[in-house]
């Protein structure tokens, strides 16, 4: 049976490899949106309002990344898995363990550490994808650009906090 969603110019094995890479990225993108919202709800202390309000647009940005990744998977004939189990089953990165109401510095430091792994994984994905599917590679490159931008915001916010300490 022919896969009606197989993109012209790709064979099934290559498409399956691309989908596998993208599924891993989708899982972390989905998880990251949950983690960012968790931080949004639980930050407290100095700079609360600035950090609280800074997080929501990034939640939206990461959700949009996940949607773009999921739609690319579907375009290639795969089935995007967006369940909690798929996050756990695809995890190749460290878990985010900060829980409860904590000060902004604690959350920013934990998010910066999480984003370091996130950015590295997205970079690895586009390096793997580049020789086999430039379209998927470009999607991941765009995601890295957004993630790096927000990482800069978080690091810049911490520098402000440290200069007042």
TrEMBL record:
Transmembrane segments: none annotated. SUPFAM superfamilies: Ferritin-like (SSF47240). One of its GO terms (molecular function) is DNA binding. The keyword DNA-binding applies. The keyword DNA-binding applies. Gene3D superfamilies: 1.20.1260.10. Keywords: DNA-binding. PANTHER family: DNA PROTECTION DURING STARVATION PROTEIN, GENERAL STRESS PROTEIN 20U. This is Starvation-inducible DNA-binding protein. It comes from Bifidobacterium commune. The lineage of its organism: Bacteria, Bacillati, Actinomycetota, Actinomycetes, Bifidobacteriales.
């Amino acid at each position: 049976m022919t896969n009606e969603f197989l993109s012209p110019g790709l064979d099934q094995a290559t498409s399956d490899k691309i989908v596998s890479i993208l599924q891993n990225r989708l899982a972390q993108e989905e998880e990251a949106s949950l983690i960012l919202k968790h931080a949004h709800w639980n930050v407290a202390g100095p700079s609360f309002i600035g950090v609280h309000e800074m997080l929501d647009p990034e939640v939206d940005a990461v959700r949009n990344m996940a949607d773009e990744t999921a739609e690319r998977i579907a375009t290639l004939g795969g089935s995007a898995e967006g369940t909690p189990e798929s996050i756990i089953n695809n995890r190749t990165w460290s878990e985010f363990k900060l829980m409860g109401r904590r000060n902004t510095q604690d959350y920013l430091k934990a998010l910066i550490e999480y984003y370091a792994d996130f950015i590295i994984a997205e970079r690895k994905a586009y390096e793997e994808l580049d020789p086999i599917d430039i379209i998927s590679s470009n999607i991941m490159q765009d995601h890295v650009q957004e993630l790096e931008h927000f990482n800069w915001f978080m690091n810049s916010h911490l520098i402000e906090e440290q200069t007042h300490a």
